[in-house]
């Protein structure tokens, strides 16, 4: 027998999906003496993708019917609202408008049909006059109103998920970097570096079930797992998205989205806001080679030009760089968007391993549904 520490379940990555997964697993195995650990390479949770997004609770409109993104977004939205009510997470069902030019009227109708096929049944068509009444500053031919779209304090949500998971016995291990993973009979031997850089030391432990929810690092961790065939690890594309704050008074009471880009690589540069009504615009889509979060100030001009198609009063001087994020896309530039990739044994042949790739938007909205989906497939 090994004298290493041993856990039943290990979740790699304390982003919103890793946290929701640990929470759902802890609920499933409540009072069953099942040990769960979350490994996180950073000092705290949600430092990468989860803290660099629009903080929007999506309705589930855009994604291909029967895709995981569509199903888990629609289910996850309801779960997220009820979780937020239960645990007092700041959120607001603010609603959003998808605005269209005259030439996009047919595409707007098709978008509504797709939403209905996805189970989003509350969209309302608005003509120009109705739209002007709601949002006088917007210039568009027509719009779809999505009343179930909202915004959430994603940091408070992640903090709560971790807290609730810890109450149920989950252990959180920050500063824990996975170096490699050996697959040994019915267990995984985890080789980690724990502690801050200078004082890092090696630590090994065993686990029976392993969930790779490492976001931007999911592929590189997958490559260190012995017995995982390399051809089951999808190629990762870094897609950077910048956000600019609006300097003036926020003229909107809803989130404003233009019609989505042709292959839904992104949803267009939209107007979103936080719970204090600070208006921001973004994200754009820029495929990059490396992870870097600096924003080029001169982009404000391009942003203003794009935004002016629906908000004519915008000026370049109104925009100042806010923050940027990197989405872990599985499709490259000008390729069709790809679904979430949640892989079990049937794909890679390794019992007890679940790998999550391409967990981009609507990952925040879908997080609890993804957690439940994974919890259902874990059998100890």
Could you describe the 3D structure shown?
The longest helix has 19 residues, at 68-86. 26% of the residues lie in helices and 29% in strands. It has two domains: 5-51 and 156-234 and 337-377, FAD/NAD(P)-binding domain, CATH 3.50.50; 96-147 and 237-329, D-Amino Acid Oxidase, subunit A, domain 2 (D-Amino Acid Oxidase, Chain A, domain 2). The protein is elongated, with a radius of gyration of 21 Å. The two termini are 20 Å apart. By secondary structure, it is an alpha+beta fold. Strand 10 (176-184) and strand 11 (187-194) form a beta hairpin. The mean pLDDT is 96.
Tell me the CATH topology of the largest domain: FAD/NAD(P)-binding domain
Low-confidence stretches: none
Radius of gyration: 21 Å
Report the sheet-strand fraction: 25-35%
CATH class identity of the largest domain: Alpha Beta
Please give the domain count.
2
Large-scale geometry: elongated
- Which oligomerization state do the chains in this entry correspond to? single chain
Fraction of helical residues: 25-40%
Q: What is the correct CATH architecture of the largest domain?
A: 3-Layer(bba) Sandwich
Within CATH, the superfamily of the largest domain carries the name FAD/NAD(P)-binding domain
> What structural class is derived from the secondary structure elements?
alpha+beta
First-to-last CA distance: 20 Å
**What number is the mean pLDDT?**
96
Q: For the report, how would you describe the main beta sheet?
A: 8 strands, mixed
């Amino acid at each position: 027998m090994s004298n290493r520490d041993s856990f039943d379940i290990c979740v790699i990555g304390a982003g919103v999906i890793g946290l929701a997964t640990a929470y759902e697993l802890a609920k499933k195995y409540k009072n069953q003496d099942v040990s769960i650990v979350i490994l996180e390479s950073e000092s705290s949770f949600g430092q990468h993708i989860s803290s660099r997004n629009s903080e929007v609770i999506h309705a589930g409109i855009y994604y291909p019917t029967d895709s995981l993104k569509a199903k888990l977004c629609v289910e996850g939205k309801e779960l997220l609202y009820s979780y937020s009510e239960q645990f007092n997470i700041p959120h607001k069902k603010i609603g959003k408008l998808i605005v269209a030019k005259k030439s996009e009227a047919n595409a707007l109708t098709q978008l509504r049909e797709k939403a209905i096929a996805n189970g989003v049944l509350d969209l309302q068509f608005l003509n120009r006059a109705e739209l002007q009444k709601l949002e006088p500053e917007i210039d568009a031919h027509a719009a779809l109103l999505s009343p179930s779209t909202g915004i959430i304090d994603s940091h408070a949500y992640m903090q709560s998920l971790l807290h609730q998971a810890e109450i149920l016995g989950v252990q959180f291990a920050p500063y824990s970097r996975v170096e490699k993973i050996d697959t040994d009979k019915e267990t995984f031997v985890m080789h980690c570096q724990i502690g801050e850089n200078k004082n890092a030391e090696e630590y090994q432990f065993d686990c029976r079930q392993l969930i790779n929810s490492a976001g931007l690092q999911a592929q590189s961790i997958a490559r260190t797992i012995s017995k995982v065939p390399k051809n089951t690890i999808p190629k990762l594309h870094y897609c950077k998205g910048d956000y600019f704050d609006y300097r003036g008074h926020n003229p909107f009471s809803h989130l404003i989205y233009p019609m989505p880009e042709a292959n839904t690589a992104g949803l267009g540069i939209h107007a979103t806001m936080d719970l204090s009504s600070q208006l921001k615009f973004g994200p754009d889509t820029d495929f990059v080679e490396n992870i870097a979060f600096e924003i080029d100030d001169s982009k404000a001009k391009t942003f203003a030009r794009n935004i002016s198609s629906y908000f004519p009063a915008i000026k370049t001087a109104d925009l100042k760089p806010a923050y940027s994020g990197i989405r872990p896309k599985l499709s490259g530039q000008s390729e069709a968007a790809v679904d979430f990739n949640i892989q079990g044994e049937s794909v890679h042949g390794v019992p007890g391993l679940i790998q999550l790739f391409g967990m981009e938007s609507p990952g925040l909205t879908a997080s609890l549904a993804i957690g439940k989906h994974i919890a259902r497939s874990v059998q100890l």
